[in-house]
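Input (structure):
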């Protein structure tokens, strides 16, 4: 695990280490190759990559849900769709030619293919149909919002990274 080096994370790590300092836990963590490390001190740019992804996720959730009250399952669905859309972002150059191969995405590395849609579900209950329609509309908004956020430009006209 790679973590920010804020004092709360460092003190939290020390507290967790003292609580979990048993031979069984140490053996399990070492067998799973789990090691908690921190980014270098005075290097706030080091975590910029995941900070950008966190920002995109939070913005998508805020714009899609707004002030709506939703169930846990609906929230899990929205967050999963946001994750899928963000993991479908290209990691390599995107060609404008239709003859070229598809660009590499995190979903290709995780699942071996691109994941862009949820499976189709048939529903008979009228209330469930209404909630499903609302959730589908929110997920369409997620895809649109994430694409806008990924394609937004900075003040100088250059794409923001």
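Output (sequence):
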């Amino acid at each position: 695990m790679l973590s920010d080096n804020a004092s709360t994370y460092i003190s939290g790590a020390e507290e967790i280490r003292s609580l979990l300092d048993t031979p069984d836990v140490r053996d399990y963590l070492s067998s799973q190759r789990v090691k908690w490390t921190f980014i270098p001190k005075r290097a706030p740019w080091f975590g910029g990559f995941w900070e950008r992804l966190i920002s995109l996720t939070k913005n998508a959730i805020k714009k899609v849900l707004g002030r709506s009250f939703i169930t846990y399952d609906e929230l899990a669905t929205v967050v999963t769709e946001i994750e899928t859309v963000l993991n479908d972002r290209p990691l390599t150059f995107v060609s404008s030619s239709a003859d070229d191969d598809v660009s590499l995405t995190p979903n290709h590395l995780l699942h071996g293919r691109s994941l862009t849609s949820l499976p189709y579900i048939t529903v008979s209950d009228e209330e469930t149909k209404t909630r499903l329609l609302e959730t589908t509309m929110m997920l369409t908004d997620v895809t649109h919002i994430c694409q806008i956020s990924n394609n937004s430009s900075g003040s100088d006209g250059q794409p923001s990274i």
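Notes: Residues 153-161 have pLDDT under 50 and may be disordered. The helical segments are 7-19, 23-31, 48-65, 72-87, 106-111, 126-151.
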